[in-house]
Target: Diaminopimelate decarboxylase
Amino acid sequence: MSNFYFGECDTVELAKKYGTPLYVISEDYIKERCDEIKHDFLLKYKKTMAVYASKAFLTKEMARIIAREGLGLDVVSGGELYTAVKVNFPMDKIIFHGNNKTEEELELAIKNNVGRIVIDNLREIDLIEKTAEKYDKRVNILFRISPGVNSHTHKYISTGQVDSKFGIPLDDNIIHRGIKKVINYKHIKLLGFHFHIGSQLFENDTYIRAVRVIAGLMKEVKDELGFITKELNTGGGYGIHYAGKGERKPLKYFTDAIMGELEKCCTEYNLERPLLMIEPGRWIIGEGGITLYTIGTIKNIPGVRTYVAVDGGMPDNPRPSLYSAKYEAVVANKILDERNEIVTIAGKCCETGDILIWDLKVPKIESGDILAIISTGAYNYSMASNYNRIPKPAVVMVSQGKDKLIVKRESYDDMLKNEI
Ligand code: LLP
Model:
């Protein structure tokens, strides 16, 4: 077994069978993470719910797996919602997010009876009331609050601070106005609050601070408006392992801390503990995916560096160029060879910044070798583009030595199909 195996499948064989670049997703990994959520959160605590943040990776097959595992789905656009509708995902377990939902998206959500809509700004309230009235429905909502805490992550994926496009700020009485307004609306039922403080987080202190802030709000709205908070959704954001330091922490590291603080605050403020909901994305899928590439041109600049170019790059993985994200990789057909060269893995785009990995330790590398970049399950396929008119790779699902195609490779004609 000198090749690299993933999901008990030989990745070199997968590359031969399906071509490269290729996203490979392990169904077993997803199930393990869902099991961890069940054992360490859903079964451990009463009044809990977990939804998968589908923005991390969504296809019809992924939605089917999440439905089978019994988790709900966080969707953030009409497109994500439509995917869920197409596989008959249980609509009561859908949470619809977004900081600028369109009327059409709200209509799609309400018509399909989504379980909850998370209100990001008060403008949405009237739109929802109007649409819900039209369809004669009552819509459950949560207010997304910006708790005003700073998280330790890249500024593009930090969301809980005061200066953010997301959520309703705490400080201008807006929540009181919002609550007073919805309490009188016939077609809206306010269940509680939501916050999401950022992504790829490793510390639980920010969650704890945010829980305390929101618990303060729960007390305030109970005392002043008589509103009882039934649900609190604390978002996702749990970090995973990419390269170097930063091992994925067990789920309970975060959820025990969140639950502990929530229970403490509720006792302190004499509140009934609301249902606690979490919505991780990356943590469920990130380490469950790899990307396979074929190595092409190798350019050695003596005394400077060696660029090893692969047949993909920023169109299938924009994270290194967007967030300076770091990845680990292996040469899949030389997994046992000693790694004694240092190279830079470049993409094939007409763009200097299209570098997937700087300074990767590899064995002696040649054109035709297969490179596997690790932990590409989250925010790769879902953020892929057609930059330079490069078709999107296929996606293969592996489980216990078996592989199946779940998304076909895009063709040139696929890219042209809407053009007139
Ligand atoms: N809930 C809400 C409201 C969110 O905005 C997000 C992520 C999540 C849950 C899931 O967060 P996760 O558990 O996956 O960290 N494209 C970036 C990540 C953007 C995350 C946006 N919101 C990246 O590639 O790192």
